[in-house]
Design a protein that fits this description.
The protein has 152 residues and is an alpha+beta fold. It has a domain at 34-132: Ubiquitin Ligase Nedd4, Chain: W. It has 5 helices and 8 strands. It has a 3-stranded antiparallel beta sheet, with no helix packed on it. The chain has a 3-stranded antiparallel beta sheet with strand order 4-5-8. The chain has a two-stranded antiparallel ribbon with strand order 1-2. The radius of gyration is 28 Å and the shape is elongated. The N and C termini lie far apart (85 Å).
């Protein structure tokens, strides 16, 4: 008797799993949220919610910004720990300049002016720092028997 493989596959797929005549129910896998460890750590530090923060910007060395439009902030000032939650968007500094100018102080405006000059020159801030000697290019390896003071 010839067996139709399509019909056989359909029957196998539709049949419930049975062991010893009883039906086995599929177990639901409950996935833990990724931020449960973060929540537990903040609870140990007794972090409190910081009110009044509407947005947050984190400036990266390559000239881009992580921009949190709607952000939740929890902080434990005694432990110098703050957690920002939300969905960040990676944007260019030039896209955010009109919005962030009122938020910046005098010292930050000078840094922003320098950043604008660097971007107009076509170089990333990390390249300019390396050229100016701001970043050490090579960190020597520590050899057994030497101390950090001996390495030059």
């Amino acid at each position: 008797m010839p067996v139709d493989p399509e019909k056989l596959a359909k029957l196998q797929k539709g049949a419930a799993k049975k062991i010893g005549g009883t039906r086995v129910k599929a177990k639901k896998v409950v996935k833990e949220q990724d931020d449960t460890k973060l929540i537990e750590a903040l609870a140990k530090l007794k972090a409190t919610k910081v009110e009044g923060v509407e947005e947050a910007n984190f400036f990266k060395e390559d000239g881009t910004v992580l921009h949190f439009n709607r952000v939740g902030v929890q902080g434990a000032a005694a432990n110098n720990t703050f957690a920002f939650t939300g969905y960040p968007q990676e944007k260019k500094v030039t896209d955010l300049i009109p919005q962030i100018l009122p938020q910046l102080g005098a010292e930050n405006l000078e840094i922003l002016r320098q950043l604008a000059e660097q971007l107009q020159a076509g170089k990333t801030p990390s390249e300019l720092q390396a050229q100016a000697g701001g970043i050490e290019e090579d960190i020597p390896d520590l050899i057994e028997g030497q101390s950090f003071d001996d390495v030059e």
